[in-house]
Amino acid sequence: MQELLEVTITVGTSFSIGGAFSDPELYKPVGDRAVLCEGEGLDFMLDCFARNNIKASFFIETAQTAYFGDEPMKGIVDKIHAAGQDTQLLVHPCWYYFDKSGKFSKDDSCAERNFNELREIFEKSIESFERLTGKKPDAVRCGNFQVDETVYCVLSELGIPLSTSLGFGIHKPHGKKFILNGGRKKFEDVMEVPLFTYKDKDVMGGFSGKSMEIASCSKSEIVQILKQARKEGISRIVLLTQPFDYIKKRDVQFSEIKRNRVNQERLETLCSFINAHPEDFVTVDFGSKVDEWTAREEKHAERFRIPTRYRNFRKIENFINDRLWDY
Fold first, then answer.
1. What share of the chain is helix, strand, coil (3-state, %, to 5)?
2. Confidence bin at 280 (pLDDT 50/70/90)
3. pLDDT (tens digit, 9 = 90+) per residue, 202-261?
4. How confident is the model at residue 189 (pLDDT cuts 50, 70, 90)?
5. Distances (CA, A) of 222 to 157, 169, 207, 244
């Protein structure tokens, strides 16, 4: 009997710089409003997950405590835990620019840093994560999916067993060994579990990589990927979303926001489809799978492609949705 296809929904849970780097006199960072989104962000997601018996991993950004302190994100973490969902660590180093030490720049990449600097960034983020969640993270995601060899060396030394920091449809790191479509691969003592990345034919006839994200995949595309992956024997799909995917905002300060109907329907479609087919799919989180996933690497099919028509519709729908406030 074929094993179930495991789907892991990873949720980047972070506050927003809100234009403060470009114009600090006019703009200030945006805190929990960027996650709660007047009920259309985190609450919408947790409700959708609860109604459809979905497990997810929320990757909590903790470097922002250098600006906001613990309390704003602590309330969000408590809400996630109360819903029975998993929490892991997300690191956006740019927030340490607000650290009173003055040692850190506005650079938001974990890649191309020296070992000691990166270790300090991770140590500070892990310490904040432990205060907010009461546990050490099992998995880390580097902001913007920017990684290099040093990242895995540091995580290995700090005893972090899992990473999900590769999504080459979003960011292509240096080195062919980091171009992973899925599965699992060990770097140092850290098992990398990348985003699911597939291919579709572009207008020039090439097959470009596309990582699976709620904000950019159409409803029909999501269902096609799940059906096709199941048929082809894919064992695992890891995908990305954020609470602010489910709103539209007028400006970087989130001063006026409204429900993003298109993206909310995409998440509803994903969750309800999985829930309606328990014989084929199951959702799993990083916390419950750490022992199994660190035990062995897992290969992934390298030629997973979807028909071009899904790409064409996705492009049109995203174009309209991004530009029309009332669509």
1. 40, 20, 40
2. very high
3. 655 566 789 999 999 999 999 999 999 999 999 999 999 999 999 999 999 999 999 999
4. very high
5. 37, 16, 18, 19
**What letter does residue 2 receive in the DSSP assignment?**
P
Read off the tokens for 304: 């997973």
Whole-angstrom distance, CA of residue 153 vs CA of residue 41: 35
- Bridge-partner residues for 247, per DSSP? 259
For the chain, domains (ranges, CATH) are 5-197+211-299 (3.20.20.370)
> Which structure tokens are listed for 272?
């309800």
Any alpha helices (H) in the chain, and if so which ranges?
A: 33-36, 42-51, 65-68, 71-82, 115-133, 149-157, 219-231, 261-276, 286-295, 308-323
Amino acid residing at 125? S
Contact 164, 238 (CB under 8 A): yes
Answering whether pTM is above 0.90, one says yes
User: How many other CB atoms sit within 10 Å of the CB of residue 13?
Assistant: 26
User: Burial letters for 177-210: b for 16+ Cβ neighbours within 10 Å, e otherwise?
Assistant: ebebbbbbbebeebbbbbbbbbbbeeeeeeeeeb
